[in-house]
Amino acid sequence: MSRAALIGLEIDEGVSIGFSDDGRWVVRARDNEFHLEEIDDCFRAWLLLERPFPEVKSALDRVAADAKVDTSFPFARLIGSALKAKSGQWTDRAMTWVPFLTLTEKESLRYLFIEARDSKWASQKSRQLARRYVNEIERE
Asked: What's the domain count of the chain?
């Protein structure tokens, strides 16, 4: 196992986030690695959403620096994964992280914001935030 494979951020007992040997973000659980390439892959990292964004970003930036990898964590994919799940709990958590995204990252999630805005499963607060983000995207 390479040095990069040993570096990571523990998010639960036996579960960590780090880099694969080829420099891609992965979730490691037991002896398995799961790449975080697509929105649908990111459900394994939802536990990050339970922590404050600045704390998580700082920790993951250190993981990348320690691994000597210049790849930012896919925060937009993680947020998109939680929104796509149509879970009130995870949507509420994900919405608190959206302000930290760039406008381009928000635009990539536009269809998920529209879905949350128009849903019955999202909380009123999340629907209001989704409406705000859609309006912000459409103004640009």
From this structure: 1
